[in-house]
Known about the structure:
By secondary structure, this protein is an all-alpha fold. Helix content is 76%, strand content 0%.
Amino acid sequence: xxALRNPIILVSLIIYMLLCIGIGIWAxxxxxxxxxxxxxxxxxxxxxTAFAVxxxxxxxxxxxxxxxxxxxxxxxxxxxxxxSLIGFNISFFLLGKRLRLFSELGGSISLxxxxxxxxxxxxxxxxxxxxxxxxxxxxxxTQILAMSIVLRDILLQTxxxxxxxxxxxxxxxxxxxxxxxxxGGIIASVYTDIxxxxxxxxxxxxxxxxxxxxxxxxLVSISQTIFEDDREAIGPWGTLGMVGCLSWLFxxxxxxxxxxxxxxxxxxxxxxxxxxxxxxxxxxxxxFSALLWISVGLIMRALVLKGIHPELTSADTAASQFxxxxxxxxxxxxxxSGLFAAIMSTSDSFLNIGAAAIMHDIPKALGIEIKNExxxxxxxxxxxxxxxxxxxLYSGDLIAILGAFGWGTFAAAIVPVVAIGFxxxxxxxxxxxxxxxxxxxxxxxxxxFKITIPFGIDIGAISLITSLTLFISISLLSxxxxxDKDVEAIMDx
Length: 493
């Protein structure tokens, strides 16, 4: 069996990619309108929606970037996991029912549609669309980079090629992604989430058990090995430090309710009352999937410190290296397939909201009518993949750092406007527009000019605090807005 490890992994991956093509073709027949393409016709059941919510939160960010971050920084990124679990509760409490009702009221097919309806202001919807496009680039790049790194490692280990560039594997994986996303839209994504979400949960639990059995002494010995090398790494704050970890707790906890690829799933379920059933399933799935994030990062660091495994050329290869060398071949093949499924469906979600922002939301805000929206949605999906791939290839960042940047960009721009604004009648369009512009300016100035923030504080936390302060203060200083009767009725629920 061990001699067949690499062929098993490769065959599993090929089967999955063929499955993606098949799902794309199947979803193509079900995608008749832009409503189908962007929000699955608001016709999803509890299980499909729940798995879509937790799996697109985990994605390549957690399955590839997470172990890499633990390998490099120790326990620091565990605060991301804790915060995300808290974030599920905050998101569903603030938006689970309300966002679905706004979607139904205005026939909204995107988050900016719902925002424009809430504030009675097309400009606010326009700025939300701009924020989505800017955040999508960082987060979509995360997914494409994760997929390309894993595929490159697999091809090199199988010996099919002696060397292959990251750009080449990006073209291969990106081509499958484009076909899958362009043909099926969000329908292709959410219906694969049931399969890949199940694989993520079961695979993560089995990997966790493998880690405990593989390393003599289990997690206690792993912790001791890391402690002897760097006591801070295995401490509660990791190497990032307390202030940095608390900034992650803030931006990933409260910021969860500002992630458009997650909260738009709340617009897709059949019944408003389904939210109370979706939440516990999503939390359950994310918690068990996160076992892979933490355990693989720790054991790979311990194996390298003990000289059992060579030093990793990149922290982002921690997950793929463990699966290729230490997991059972069949388990490795299944988990690799689940990993690609998670990345693929999440990438589709980002392409979906990005395409909606470009060809539906911005033209609508500017009073421009786009004919044949479904056709242009597919063209924009293809172009966004190219741009995000280029950004991933030349950014030079770790997968988890790129993901954290995308998460922070979304959180700072959208949390005040949507999570707070959809629950607070006093919120004004001026406050919303100012908060979005200020947050985007802070995030991208720091990123472009590579400004170092002291104490490891995440820039997303700074921009989120700034946008919240501006949003609340400007709303209080402005005259109370006059709300549409139907909008006010929803906010009274």
